Each structure stands twice: as C-alpha cells, then as structure tokens.
C-alpha cells in the first residue's frame, strides 16, 4: 500500500494544477481630456500606480498625445480599486479625468 501513495499524490497534484487558472488580467486605461492638468496625471501615476517619475511623465505624454494610455495591468479586483481611487482623487481635485478598465 505504501508504494501506491506517491502515485495517488501525483494524481491529486495533476488534478489540482489542471483546475487552477491564472486570474484574468485587466488594463487600467487613462483617457485624455482638455481640463485635467498634466501635473495631476503624473501625480496619479506616481501615487496610485506606483510609477517612477520618468515613467509617469512618459505615460502622461502618451495619454496627452494619443488620447489614452495603459497605467497598468492587474487582476480584476486590483484594477477596480485603482479605477475607483483614481476617479475619487480626480473628483476631489475637481478634474474630469476618465479612467476605465478592459480585459487584457
């Protein structure tokens, strides 16, 4: 009987690994507007999305020039939290910054 246990353990491991899926990832997207300042967008990218100043500035310019940019890719609950935090921060500072999320 002891010789069969490793086989059973391996089968269980294979079954569990087959059922475990990586969580679906979501892109958090910032959208350009004519009212939100570039400085505020950089501040959001640094404080909410934990970007370095250089990366935040480059992403801000992408949003400004191309109309939108991906601030990050996260599991759904993290993406939702970042969207809500960004919108709250924007509204608290009287900016109409739009932030959305989309499946990766």
How many helical stretches?
Answer: 4
How many domains, in number, for the residues? 1
Q: What's the gyration radius in Å?
A: 21 Å
CATH homologous superfamily caption: Ribosomal protein L7/L12, C-terminal domain/Adaptor protein ClpS
Largest beta sheet: what is the strand line-up? 2-1-3
Protein structure class: alpha+beta
CATH topology: Ribosomal Protein L30, Chain: A
CATH class category name:
Alpha Beta
| Beta-strand content | 15-25%
- SS elements, strand count: 3
SSE sequence, one letter per element: HEHHEHE
> Which consecutive residue ranges, at least 5 long each, have pLDDT under 50?
none
Proportion of helical residues = 40-55%
Query: For the residues shown, what is the average pLDDT?
Result: 92
Model description:
54% of the residues lie in helices and 20% in strands. It is elongated, with a radius of gyration of 21 Å. The mean pLDDT is 92. The protein is α+β, with helices and mostly antiparallel strands. The chain has a 3-stranded antiparallel β-sheet. It has helices spanning 5-19, 38-47, 53-66, 76-92; strands at residues 25-31, 68-75, 98-103. The chain has one domain: 2-Layer Sandwich (Ribosomal Protein L30, Chain: A).
What key attributes describe this structure?
104 residues, alpha+beta, Ribosomal Protein L30, Chain: A, three-stranded antiparallel beta sheet, 54% helix, 20% strand
In brief, what are we looking at here?
This protein is α+β, with helices and mostly antiparallel strands and 104 residues long. The chain is built from 4 helices and 3 strands; from the N terminus they run αβααβαβ.
């Amino acid at each position: 009987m002891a010789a069969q246990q490793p086989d059973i353990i391996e089968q269980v491991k294979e079954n569990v690994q087959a059922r475990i899926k990586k969580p679906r990832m979501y892109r958090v997207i910032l959208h350009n507007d004519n009212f939100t300042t570039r400085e505020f967008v950089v501040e959001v990218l640094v404080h909410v999305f934990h970007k370095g100043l250089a990366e935040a500035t480059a992403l801000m310019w992408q949003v400004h020039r191309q109309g939108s940019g991906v601030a990050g890719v996260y599991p759904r609950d993290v993406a939702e939290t970042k969207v809500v935090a960004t919108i709250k921060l924007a509204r608290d500072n009287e900016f109409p910054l739009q932030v959305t999320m989309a499946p990766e």
